[in-house]
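Entry 12.
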Amino acid sequence: MLLAVGILALMALGALWQPHDPDAIDLASRFSPLTIGHPLGTDHLGRDLLARLMVGGWRTAIVVLTVALVGIVGGCLFGTTAALVGGWGETAILRTAETSIVIPTLIIALTAAAIFGLKPAIAGLALGLAGIGPYTLFAHALARRIVAQPYVHAARALGVSDGPLILRHVVPNMLPAVFTHVGSNAGLAVTAYASLAFLGLGADPSRPDWGGMLFEYRMFIFDHPMLLAWPGLAIAATAALFNWAFDRG
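Predicted 3D structure (tokens):
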């Protein structure tokens, strides 16, 4: 968990500092090789690749944090509600969650991006909402197990209502597992956002994203393959690091 926080903090560094202006055009330095001034070189417009990767990193971090927040809040809310209400209410919530799984995540994200534009917060919200179904089912399974514990029955016998019961007993005991489940999907959020940026729906080309860089540099795949290699490696490495961090617990 601490490793995942460290990864997000490193990605967020790009919001505070970049070695160069990521949008500064310098045609005299186009396709510069790796130098001290440009550690990863420059692109076809002479823009610093490291600076552009750093900006893309903090924008991706916003998406990951938004997806995690929506997944944790939504999953805990609907999952615990279903476990506590029981009966037809529980069935309705679970059937709705199962039905939402049928809709591909990217379809929901593409629709939101086409309507609202590809902003990191919007993309994160759309991806998070698309994942509410699995989060709800997972949280429901945890909540059902916790609700069956003797200390929960004792609290109910003492007259504790559902609200305090959820806040004091259910959520604190299920939150670590829900957080790990949502966090383990952070790599999927990274690749999904890169896919949206690659498609360019509503993206602002002046704000570099890793997927958008892949699209922009695709025409140089044979002449200057490193232009695609750096954002591709950033996507793959970030997704792999998130999965590894949460697999370690």
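Annotation: The longest helix spans residues 49-85. Residues 41-247 form a domain with the MetI-like fold fold (CATH 1.10.3720.10).
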